[in-house]
## 1
Amino acid sequence: MPLILLRSLTNNINLKEESMSTTIQQLIDQAKNGQGQAALNGLISFVTENPKDEQAQFLLSSWYFQSMDWENSEKSMVNLLRLAPDNLNYLDNAIGMYSQMSNFKAALKYQERVAELKPDDSGIQYKLGMLYHRLFDFDSALKVFNQLVKKEGEHPQILGLIADIIHGFGRFEEAIEYYHRILKLEPNNEAAINGIVKSTKFKMIDNDLLTKAQRILRDNSVPKQAKAQIYFSLGKMYDDCKEYDNAWSNYRLANEIQSSLYPYNQSALVQQIAQFKEIYNAKFFTDNNWQGNESVAPIFIVGMPRSGTTLLEQVLEHSGMVCAGGESLALNKAINKQFYKIRYPDELGKADSEIFMRLAKDYENYYINCHLSGDMRSIDKLPGNFLHLGLLKKMFPKMKVINLSRNKLDCCLSVYFQMFADHMTFTTDTKNISSFYDTYLETMDYWKTLFPENIFDLSYEDLVSDFETNTKALFEFLELDWNKNVGDFVDSKNSVQTPSSWQVRQGINTKSVGRSKQYESFLKKSI
């Protein structure tokens, strides 16, 4: 073990030096003197001879964990908790270990035990609620958060979590009440303003809400990003009321702030795609016999943001045959785990022949461990996965990719009108959005020259205008059984936690088709 890693380990495992056995202290000293492997071997031998030594099991589990040997770390932690099942320190470390491993089902098991041991600790109950939330068990999360409000009183953060879950369920009027309660506690809470706006279809300007928003914008103490959120909210309200000039003005101000905070580098994307094309070429797929898991066919919905991916995911999930994973981190987690010793994609040639199988296994385990229905066939609707289809093809040779496109002007406008996460830097300028859109199409055309049998092209416009015909064809491609109820998801009990939650609750309609016509004079300047 490297010295720096051992120092980090011994500083963070909460073992008091005076309470350590002489043998354990000697092993730690040995590792600190640069004999890490010998110390580890000694610790393994000590644990084998003394399996009931809690300190040794704890140290060995932590040692394995920080060495990225998560399998053996887990074994040692399980042994430790057999010895001391109610030790809060050990339980807390187990929760942290499993959370870091993205095994939230296992983390929940131990968090529930801690909550039983300390039922009056609100901090522990909050962590329990967040784990339910992370596992998409929104009913259980809502129950915990409501209990916290009853016990501790109204807190903006907890009220915000409750409001967002209720909004996701489609109970918009109830959600609005919670957002107003937040504003009474924190008048400058931009998330609450946005919550009210996203839960409302305005027929006229809400002057009271407008006054509150303008007050926040005048406050010099409010961070720029919070003001950007306010401008996005005002843009949506003006757009609802068909005041398109005012809407565009506010959306422009919002995006100017975001662009100044998070500038976009188009050349980096171009270089990345060129590198992928160089690696994932026809020769790579014909000459390289390395394969991942051929027994499963996960579903990937790729395309631009705001192209209807959430709507389509709800349609597929309503079939009852798939697990909706949302915009999943599964691929990112698998890459980070398997390529921590070599750079991806630069050094992919150094990977051993089993890496694609390990990547596939890690990807599958993410769903199993992070979703209540994760043992079902998975849907991953992270639009940016279109960049990584070469890798995914090797991981899952039988994967099913739905290439969901949308009219360029409509799509680019919808992207421009939405506040995205900080890393989505291309979304703050219409020229950049247009370039990204073109790059997406070109990249998909490339993948279709390599493995067209894995890709199903579908446009948002076709989906909503002839739903039955297109979903029948899609379900046949996905090898799913179609039935007339797949479009009846409006009253689904799912909590949709994306910006499209309002639109999804409106069902299949063509209202968003041609939306850009009202803004053509603005868009023609850049797209």
## 2
Amino acid sequence: MNAHLPIKDPTATSEVVYDNAAPVAIATEGVVTTADAPPVNAAALQGDGAGCHAGKDEMLKAAKAAGKSEILDQYAKDYPVGPHDQPQSMCPAFGSLRVGLRMRRTATVLSGSACCVYGLTFTSHFYGARRTVGYVPFNSETLVTGKLFEDIREAVFKLADPELYDTIVITNLCVPTASGVPLRLLPKVINGVRIIGIDVPGFGIPTHAEAKDVLAGAMLKYAREEAEQGPVQTPRGGRSGKPTVTLVGEMFPVDPVTIGMMLEPMGLAAGPVVPTREWRELYAALDGAVVAAIHPFYTASFREFEIAGRPIVGSAPVGYDGTAAWLDAIGRRCGIAADTIAAAQNRILPAIKGALSAMPVKGRITLSGYEGSELLVARLLVESGAELAYVGTACPRTQWSDPDREWLEAKGIRVQYRASLEQDIAAVEEFKPDLAIGTTPVVQKAKQMAIPALYFTNLISARPLMGPAGAGSLATVVNAALGNKARFDTMKDFFAGVGEGYSAGVWDDVPKDRPEFREKYRKQMAALAKQRSTGDTSDYKNGKMI
């Protein structure tokens, strides 16, 4: 459920919550007023009368006019959108929301349109987050007068109870970002509780995967600056007696354990996984001997590690070739002797080779997704014997993904960064695979073509990928799906003749297609877009399209 903040009388709410958070007294010392803030941009509410409908370009322009140029320019550098404007995926803010909700002693508060907050909280609870999500509502008046910032500040002060929280994360969604709501003016610490404000607008962050980096990077920056000032908390389990390898990117829980077993012969240990599950783990992550870019798109996080003087190694220990190369790169970065690195490789590689040969995958496959691990899964499929034709990822190309891209392209596999839905579907139509792995609409399209398909996020990325366990786990689900081709052919034959698209179903009279209606609406939408971007109303007369 949502906690609507601020709540004047907390006892008046019947909300069901999953933690013991309680209101605390509001501190009034060091109050930052809206007089200190840049004026909130009322233009964000213009357009169609609702800011979040104003269009990406208009909201971007409004945000820059309202003082958000610096952060949006940094986002543009960290998360470049080319060659496509923006992939089609879920709201980016879900990524940062997920990171905060998975951390101990961390409160999460959203500021945005109510419909957006509802969708984000619904999705977060659907994925198992049994945490309260705070929400600071607004209307046109509180937004344009600056009262929204005061409401956010009041809510943060109410939540800042050190008995309950180490950190409070407040996130601006699209409209507050476009309006310039200045979260940077919030105190950095209240009653000993860290305050982190981030802007995660859909018009500035391309994917939810990269929004994870926005919050992870902000937390690492805060933790790094704390560590530079003096002693900090040790990890819950104490410091490792060995040099550690920090792992960047969400993984199946057994994967870090498997990686730790691979590192042990070299005298190394697996360090924390970033995004972390607790604040104190951030210090241990920054203390690692080397950083493993398991997921290569955490640009802001990598920047903090580089400032801290930590080397970064791309790719991951997936499959035979990937594991051999990764162990060698990690070992050399840590100054491990060549014979010791070879011993570590010889300990694990035969088991991986045996798992790959015991569970071969036979069939043509196309692969796409928006989690950031697509190239790693692709490598594992190829080494399992699959004929992989296409890999599409919604994430951008970075230097940390180059080892995987080069390995795949050397085998003649097409790799598409910032892949659009249209490209992913075109690949299915072009290659006509025996199995399509992708996002929900790609899976839907494949099944309409009687091609077995698997949803990447829930059925592929939520499995172990590292070591022998990764080879066996992936092959099991893929081979099961490949074996369903006959069932799809049977279903296609059974439903033959019931129509497709507008004519699908059982009718007294078959519906008639009306393409002229679609063309009319297309022109109206184009004219509306033109009006938004240029203010040109020449296509309209008396409020109606000519």
